[in-house]
Please model this.
Amino acid sequence: MEDIADLGAFSRELYDALRARRTIQPISARAPELGIDDAYKISLGFLDLRLADGERVIGKKIGVTSQPVQDMLNVRQPDFGFLTDAMHVADGATVEIAQGLIQPRAEAEIAFVLGKDLRGPGIGMQDVLDATDFIAPCFEIVDSRIADWKIKIVDTVADNASCGVFVLGEARANPRDFDLAALKVVVTKNGAPLSEGFGAAVQGSPLQAVAWLANTLGPYGVTLLAGDIVLSGSLVPLEPARPGDSFTMELEGVGAASIHFA
Model:
């Protein structure tokens, strides 16, 4: 394990890369002795620097939950990161890549908004359902500060689970009205069909993914709070986003979300 000063240097390096819109070489290659706990300490340090800029935490995200995404990134376990108000963009908004993103990729998700706190360990799927106020269609735009997306689990954990920005659709639905594992999403890119997926893509059910998050956060002293937005993981493979691209997603029976890039 690296000492705190060394971990803080990696936090600063990621923060500087975010602000300068540039990439860094993989942390895992330069410090192969680092473990998951070290990576989360780096991530928390990275977050602290953003909070010092005036950002505030409004939720959490789960990453690398589905088999297609794990295969694409060659990462074999989920991770988590923090959502801040600066990451939230309006449904249908146009995001200028040159103003804040580096190498973005779009993924379609089911977002949970909590009505009650969830504190692990011991959280199950029914606990998540009981604590959820509503679900909404969501695009997360993941973005890596690691060069060429050459990440291992330590890299993506340290890099706030590769979070860029996210969009919540305006639709709100009661999760108790749906079989969330069977909930289908259809994604289009520039008006053409791109991909389809189901809630079961994320650990068998997005409820299971959120339960995993609550139980994983517990040992770090972090609680999912009432009002938190929780992104439960992509139902489809990641898709690169470039200037001029437009994405829409339809979460069947719930509603849609869209995002455009310039």
In short: The first helix runs from residue 4 to 20. The chain has one domain: 56-261.
